[in-house]
Q: What sequence folds into this?
């Protein structure tokens, strides 16, 4: 028994060390950017890099309230990402449910079609999207931008939701149908509550994708619609890259995402492990 | 609540096809109000499909479904006033026991107080009144099963459909629940249709049984009727523990000849010599001085009874007796049976002949 617990302790330490190593690989760039955002321009470019320095909030003041404030861009991002996420989920939930559950002619074809739209490299679509939006006068508008975001977030969300819906036993909604709920109320009262982990995961991923999107934003946006990713890009210019401002901007842009992640964490962990245990529908 | 005037079921020529595969080949059924009716058969025989057709969860390719004389063939499950207990129970994991039981009432807009009363009442009937605040995940299998029952009875449906509801319980609990289920059905007076592949369960629960084979009903009758006079060799070979011995034999005169093992009287006279399948229940076989020659393979001791496994020529038979027997492996004995215990079936069609 003693030997056993000793063994498991060693194992625990090894696991923690391994996890720490992996975590630091992920965390290093973020920490580097965090440190950079507090450095003066001189310290940023110092070689060898300085670890200890006199921190300054100047860059935060500048990116938040200065001439190159990114606050309007943050607002742009909030509007685009939130609208795209809400619309995506509103459409993806019923669509995913139908693909997962109902039998209809052309089901396989439509399922594949949804996936096929994801097989194109986005850069190949920028020009056609640009021309299309230009034609309808939707360049540099929220409507146009959200519409384009839907083209990549919707298939992704539908496919994620299909797998979550498929994990729920058929008998759940059959029971609900016999209990006189009807399709829609069965979906609302029985299916959606059981898929809430999956819904949370999908929502967060869709939001993250929209929030961090750059390529479409830089080409199809403009002065009115300029998400924060594009604004940060402006800190990089031909003459000079303002690393500290870029880092401060990145930290500010990261904050809401981290907040959402923390709020949804419980659901995300649950949602990610769905299907790990068979019969998860009857926990 | 006496509902025995409701719950008559009539299935007329029900055909179900999945693409090229035909699952039900024209099933006819008439179930009387208040009856405990069991659909019995091996897996894939169409019994569960038939239950799902009655529930409205499966459509039929041809035929009609009538409930209390009303054609419900094209009605949705929720419009049929039937309740179902699933094999997996299908409890809603995110709701409490009380919410689970009350769900069918909530869906028809009953006010919360009436729902609470009905839930307490239904829960009391299956002795789970103390579990109402728990969630299904916190219950044992037996308790979950009771919640599923309560959810079905709470709405006083005209028809109670049960799809192998005991198969997920351990053996002892299964026996106890079987008794309670029967008592519950009696006290409610509701029509129950019960699917199982366990013939013992069918025999103990049913007022009448329909035996399914390959998408057809081969026999409908009382447990005694089906056990005593199986209409088909396949039914004979399915019912009983152990099931009936079936031997290839030739029928002529008043006797059958089983290979070179011997000739035995079966009472009935053959119209002409014909190839038959001779059926004898293990309990009807006796060790006699003359009869069919058989070689002992093994004796299984069951405490209150014993089963001898013997060979008649190439064919294996089982003999069951309550009396002590002294048989050794390899010993050659003779088997006999009363003429009335012989069941004769046509060799090719399997139809009963005597």
A:
């Amino acid at each position: 028994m003693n030997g056993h617990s000793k063994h498991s302790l060693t194992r625990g330490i090894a696991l923690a060390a391994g996890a720490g190593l992996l975590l630091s690989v992920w965390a290093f760039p973020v920490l580097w950017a965090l440190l950079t955002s507090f450095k003066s321009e001189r310290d940023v470019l110092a070689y060898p890099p300085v670890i200890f320095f006199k921190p300054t909030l100047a860059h935060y003041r500048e990116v938040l309230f200065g001439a190159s404030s990114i606050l309007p861009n943050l607002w742009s991002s909030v509007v685009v990402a939130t609208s795209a996420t809400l619309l995506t989920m509103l459409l993806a939930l019923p669509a995913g449910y139908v693909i997962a559950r109902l039998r209809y002619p052309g089901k396989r074809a439509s399922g594949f079609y949804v996936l096929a739209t994801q097989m194109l490299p986005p850069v190949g679509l920028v020009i056609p999207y640009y021309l299309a939006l230009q034609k309808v006068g939707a360049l540099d508008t929220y409507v146009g931008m959200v519409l384009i975001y839907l083209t990549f977030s919707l298939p992704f969300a539908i496919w994620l939701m299909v797998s979550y819906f498929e994990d729920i036993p058929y008998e759940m909604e059959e029971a609900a149908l016999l209990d006189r709920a009807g399709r829609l109320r069965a979906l609302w009262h029985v299916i959606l509550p059981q898929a809430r982990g999956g819904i949370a995961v999908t929502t967060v991923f869709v939001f993250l994708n929209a929030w961090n999107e750059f390529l479409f934003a830089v080409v199809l946006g403009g002065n009115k619609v300029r998400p924060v990713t594009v604004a940060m890009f402006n800190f990089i210019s031909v003459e000079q890259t303002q690393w500290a401002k870029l880092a401060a901007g990145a930290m500010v842009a990261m904050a809401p995402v981290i907040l959402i992640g923390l709020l949804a964490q419980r659901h995300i962990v649950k949602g990610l492990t769905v299907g790990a245990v068979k019969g998860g529908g009857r926990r | 609540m006496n509902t025995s005037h409701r719950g008559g079921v009539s299935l007329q020529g029900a055909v179900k096809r999945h693409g090229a595969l035909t699952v039900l080949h024209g099933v006819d059924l008439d179930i009387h109000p208040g009856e405990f009716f069991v659909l019995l058969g091996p897996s894939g025989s169409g019994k569960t499909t038939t239950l799902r057709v009655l529930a409205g969860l499966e459509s039929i390719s041809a035929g009609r479904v009538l409930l209390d004389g009303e054609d419900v063939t094209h009605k949705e499950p929720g419009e049929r006033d039937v309740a179902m207990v699933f094999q997996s129970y299908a409890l809603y994991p995110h709701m409490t026991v009380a919410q689970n039981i009350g769900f069918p009432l909530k869906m028809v807009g009953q006010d919360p107080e009436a729902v609470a009363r009905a839930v307490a009442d239904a829960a009391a009937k299956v002795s789970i009144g103390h579990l109402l605040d728990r969630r299904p995940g916190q219950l044992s299998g037996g308790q979950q099963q009771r919640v599923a029952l309560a959810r079905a009875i709470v709405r006083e449906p005209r028809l109670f459909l049960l799809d192998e509801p005991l198969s997920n319980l351990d053996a002892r609990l299964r026996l106890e629940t079987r008794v309670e289920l029967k008592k519950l059905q009696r006290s409610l007076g509701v029509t129950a249709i019960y699917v199982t592949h366990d013939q013992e369960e069918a025999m103990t629960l049913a007022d009448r049984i329909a035996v399914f084979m390959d998408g057809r009903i081969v026999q409908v009758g009382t447990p005694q009727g089906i056990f005593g006079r199986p209409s088909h060799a396949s039914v004979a070979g399915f019912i009983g523990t152990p099931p009936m011995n079936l031997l290839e034999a030739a029928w002529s005169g008043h006797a059958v000849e089983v290979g070179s093992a011997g000739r035995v009287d079966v009472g009935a006279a053959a119209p002409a010599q014909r190839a038959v399948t001779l059926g004898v229940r293990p309990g009807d076989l006796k060790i006699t001085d003359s009869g069919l020659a058989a070689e002992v393979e093994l004796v299984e001791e069951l405490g209150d009874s014993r089963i001898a496994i013997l060979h008649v020529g190439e064919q294996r038979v089982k003999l069951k007796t309550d009396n002590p027997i002294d048989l050794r492996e390899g010993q050659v004995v003779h088997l006999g049976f009363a003429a009335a215990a012989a069941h004769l079936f046509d060799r090719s069609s399997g139809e009963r002949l005597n």
Chain A has 13 helices and no strands.
